[in-house]
Amino acid sequence: MFIQHIIGLFTDPVGEWEKIREEQKSKNGGFGFIFILSAIPAISGYIGTTQVGWRIGVGDPVRITGDSAIAIAIIFYLAMIVGVFSIGWVIHLLGKAYELEKPLPLCLALAAYTATPLFLIGIMEVYPVLWLNMLLGLPALAYTVYLLYSGLPVMMEIPAERGFLYSSAVLAVGLIALVSLLGMTALLWGMGLQPVFTS
To answer: Which residue stretches of the chain have pLDDT < 70?
Structure first.
């Protein structure tokens, strides 16, 4: 069922958000797809950094060892899952500030389906070329923001004007979480979890 929702979010986002909302009202759960989609960028990153590598200038490709890559891929996978569930929890908590009492599973579904373009574009990590990843990643990021702004009013059943402010608050929290994640990455690297390059 989640594949139909993913296709719908790219073909008719507003209509698909309504279907997701109604499904969540009746089912109230079903988040296994988050664990599947989160694996796409993690596995792709593992393959790209160990098998393909990336070039800096005209030299040989730079790769990291399999042991190093698997540790980073696992941490990356867990960080994405925690990130989606955290944003869902934030949506739920901010709902109280906007005088909305929506169930947590509905908020988690909103967060999970909003992040779908970022999960799917993660396949590009198989070929880690910075300019190509930026060229394709920025539209995916923009579409993710669009899904948040179009989906939140529908899922929370509020007017678009209130939804804009609510979505902006969620986006701000998401950006703060991203900066925190970058800081934690630097800490982990300092504690010995940095990539180990092949010679």
So the answer is: 1, 28-30, 199
What is the C-alpha to C-alpha distance for residues 46 and 164, in angstroms, rounded to an integer?
A: 37
pLDDT at 117: 95
Q: Is the dihedral of CA 82, 84, 88, 91 positive or negative?
A: positive
| The pLDDT of residue 29 | 65
Q: Which residue has the tokens 């993710």?
A: 144
What are 146's two structure tokens? 């669009």
**Is 199 domain-assigned?**
no
Residue 160, amino acid: A
pLDDT at position 188, please? 75
Report how far residue 118's alpha carbon sits from residue 141's, in angstroms, rounded to the nearest whole number. Answer: 6
Q: How far, rounded to the nearest angstrom, does the alpha carbon of residue 21 sit from its chain's CA centroid?
A: 20
Number of domains in the chain: 1
pLDDT at 11: 95
* Cβ atoms 156, 92 nearer than 8 A: no
Structural domain boundaries, residue 159:
2-193
SS3 state of residue 157: coil
Closest of 107, 117, 98 to residue 155, by C-alpha: 107
Rounded Cα distance between 199 and 149, Å, is: 46
What are the beta bridge partners of residue 189?
none
